[in-house]
Structure formats: C-alpha cells, structure tokens
Amino acid sequence: MLEDRATAVSSPTQWPAAYPKGYAVVDVETTGLARDDRIISAAVYRLDERGEAEDHWYTLVNPERDPGPVWIHGLTSEVLEGAPLFADIAEEFAARLDGRVLVAHNAVFDWQMIAREYARAEREAPVRQRLCTIALSKELGLPLPNFKLESLAAHYGVVQQRAHHALDDARVLAEAFRPSLRAAAAGGVRLPLLECRPLTEWSDRAVPRQSTGGLGGYGGYRPNSWRPSRKRPACPHPNPGRYEDGKRLKQGMRVAFSGDTSVERDLLEDRATEAGLHVASSISRLTSLLVTNDPDSGTSKVVKARQFGTPIVDEAAFGQLLRDVEPADG
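^ thats the sequence. predicted structure below, dont judge the formating
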C-alpha cells in the first residue's frame, strides 16, 4: 500500500464526476531516446479513481540489441540476455493499461516508446488518454525548482530509493501523483489529459551498432550512438509563404509537426520531404503550416502557431493535401 507523505491534502468528499475512473502509473527504461530505441524494463502501478494503489507489476525486457547507457539504468547485456521479448509481455502489459489513463513523468516519451513497441509486435496498446505529471504540476502551480521527478518527489516528501529503476520510479511517481490528484480535485482543476494515438503505420530505422556479442549479437554499445539525429537534405525550393485554407500546398512551404500521429513521424516527414516541402523542427513567423491532432494541447508549437497566426491542420487533412502539392515556381 502506498503512503501519503508530508501532504495536507485530503481526499475531497465530492469527487469530480468528469475525472477518470482509474490510472496506470508507468515508467519505462530504454536503450536510449531515439525512435529506434527499445524498452528494457517496464513498471506499472494501477491506481483507483482517487489515486489509491491497487497493485503493481514489473518486468525486464530483452531489447535484442545493446542496452545503451548502462551507467544510467544499470541493466547490462548479461542481465537482459534471459529476459522476455516485448512480444512475450505485450499481453500482460496491455492488461495493466486497459481502461486506464496512462500517467507518467514526461508522458509523451513513455507513450511513444510503448506505442512503437506495440507496433513492432503488430499489436495495439489499449491506451486512449495520457496524463503528464509535469503538466499537472504546472496546472497546480507547485513551487518546484524544476520539473524533474526528484523535485516533485521532494515536494511531497517521497523518498527515492533507486533512481532510474522502473519499479522504484513508478512507485515514487504514484506516491507523488496521488496528492497532486487530490489537490486538483479539491481545486476543481481540469486534468491535462491528452489523446494517445496508436501507430497504424510504422517503420523501424535501425541504427548500425558495432557487434561484440551478447543479446544475440546486438552488443557493442558506442557512447555517442544512442541519440542519433536524422539529417534531411535542404529543401531546394524557396518558401512561398503560408498555406491558405482551401488551396494546395506548394513546394518549399515550411511544415512543422506536433503531438501524436497515427503514422510514425519519420514516415510523415519523409513524405513531406519527398513532396518538396521543408520539414521544420520549430515554429517561426516563416512556418507555412503546423500539423497536429491536438490543437488544444497547449504545447509550445501550438502556442507559437496561434501567436504567429500559423495555419493548423490535422494529420488526415495533411495526408489529403500531400496528394496534390503544387510545383514550385520555375
């Protein structure tokens, strides 16, 4: 049973009817931060609607490649050699998530890693909404020096025992989430829930690794290879300006993406590049179009797009526009 520590917030008698009926507090450790990286351990604390713990679960996962930054997570090739593959634990993991809101610290990262693993296993994670405890801390105006997990834990007097161990990180987050949830309920705060879109089209872009044995030949971790960046060729066309509703996209337009997409982001960006568009990593006054399925999410890109008056379309509309891109002048 989880314990409340150093918080004066008690469970409100009148609980908001619109709040979710259950939560799955999740932490995953991974081989790195890139799109082709893999989960090597996962933990889930299931909580009821008021944040009380129901049970917890933890597993190692064989990533079928080198384990990445061992000095962070402590999981070596030898430890992971006999662990189950993700496909072997996918059903149990799904049962822990089913019908609940996924809660994580920097939840977009955990969700994207989980969504990619399910795509590799040709399955779909039963998650429809997520809640980021960083976003919730901001909504509550918590006086934190920064938004690291250890700062949130310290605010509520929760003691970390093994940082970057999935089970302990999930426990710490569950203990810190419960008083945050109760404070939100007592204050009538709208929870910052975001939609989770499972990947319907996905491609694994493996990063070459130097093999030295272990994990079926996926050893050979190189310290600077776990956060690869993908460089695209410069767009050869001048920027014709902003996209106008009802008209065609034109080669050279600067397009940015934000939030979850049903098609893996790399594939969407590839298609935009192949169509002659400029894929931008940020929003500026020169951005022609922002593609997002969450126009009300409040992400920095969405906020800047609204400030600059940048047009916004969803993924489906963008897919239609890509079918008929106007050639650049000349």
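Residues 166-187 form the longest helix (22 residues).
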